[in-house]
């Protein structure tokens, strides 16, 4: 009987090590994903939204900003709609889609974030907020519009050339409304 239990013990250990190696390899592959020509990550850390928006890739651009996180059902529901907007504006170098993500408390938050970006093909720029950035972001938005409550998803339209700021922009499923706000900013 002791011999049989010892074999089960070793089998359990071997299976555990194999599972850990597989998980570890997947985790490293997922978190090391650096994007491609259509999915880009903001590499630097920023103190607040205005500092991020003033960074080099976004200077003199119009931005459609999506505040989201990887396990947010309403955020995920909207992911089917940006391709319609992106197709309409595909020849516009002056428009940038920027996804700013809340960092969940999940131990694999980075992995889940990058997996969601790939799964939903969220082409554009990506930034994951730390807690301090997020606190300042919501305070900044509320200082501009006291009716804004912290909640996801939220969409912004930012024109870095004219200074136009819309902190309560329509969601991507409201394609006509988003186009109506973006087109005059792009056609000046």
UniProtKB/TrEMBL annotation:
Record domain Redoxin: where: 46-160
InterPro entries: Redoxin, Thioredoxin-like_sf, Thioredoxin_ResA/DsbE_sf
Keywords: Cytochrome c-type biogenesis, Disulfide bond, Redox-active center
A Pfam cross-reference name: Redoxin
PANTHER family per record: THIOL:DISULFIDE INTERCHANGE PROTEIN DSBE (PTHR42852:SF6)
Annotated compartments: Cell envelope
Principal cellular location given in the protein's record: other
Protein name, per record: Redoxin family protein
Keyword Secreted set for record: no
